[in-house]
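Lab notes, practical 5.
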Amino acid sequence: MSKLGIPGLAPELEAELTEGMARVESLLLSHIQGDYPLVEETSRHLVAAGGKRLRPLLTLLASHYGDKNKFGVIESAVVCELTHVATLYHDDVMDEAKLRRGVESANSRWGNTVAILTGDYLFAKVSALLADIGPEAVRLQASTFERLVIGQIMETQGPRAGEDPLEHYLGVVADKTGSLIAASARFGAMVSGAPAEVKETLTVFGEKIGIAFQLADDVIDIASESHQSGKTPGTDLREGVPTLVTLNVMKSTSAADRELIELLKAPIKDEVVVAQVLNQLRTHQALEQSREQLQQIARDARTALGPLPVNDVTGALFSLCDAIIDRSA
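Output from the prediction step:
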């Protein structure tokens, strides 16, 4: 497995991506610097904690279908990662999360107000980069940010009367996660001057792989006994957040699942009960059903790549689909 998280990368492509990601990392850290030490400290908190960097990596991969050396490629990769990190500060406040990317969440360390304002600060730094890239980049960011916000509102509001909760959830995931990953791929193609059909293909692929990425995290939150997702296993249970696995359980009509379903309807605050529910879910058919649904969406993502030319970059995108499935195995 490559250090970039994609198996089987061609050596030359891996070297180019590694160099590009080093430039992304450098700009990420330098761009959040400011005149206020506390703001810089809080901003660096999650940026320096790392993360998978899937979004900027996808931007760099997509740029290889055009001129990967054009101005704006590295900048747009940073835009995507900073946007993602900014939303994490806000998400952690809403979810009252204690841990993020394996470190104490900003809201736990500095309080909700500072965490929210840090997210806002990062959005301001994103805007400065976008202004240099150009109006088309600003429009893409605006439409993406709109979907991020709508997705969060839909999640907060919950499904409408008569709406299938699982379908509602998949719509939320498409907006909250898929939209930014789709934009990450589109940025790379757009800024590098890739052909229009390639840009559209990569956008469709990005959304599907983004949905798969979140659903893999849903499975990991239940199935993993480690901090593989950067969160404590069972975090979603403690917060009462519906996920692919729990929504599949909720569809059950079996009398044996009634007590479990009642527990899943609200946040579980008792750690003993969390451990018991995790054990039940790890042997429940809903977990395997969730894995099958995840694999189908990953297959859809692979199918979306069909129109792309056969080359090392397209091969890397296919491998990325495999890597996401492997995370949840």
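Observations recorded by the TA: The two ends are 16 Å apart (CA to CA). Strands lie at 99-100, 103-104.
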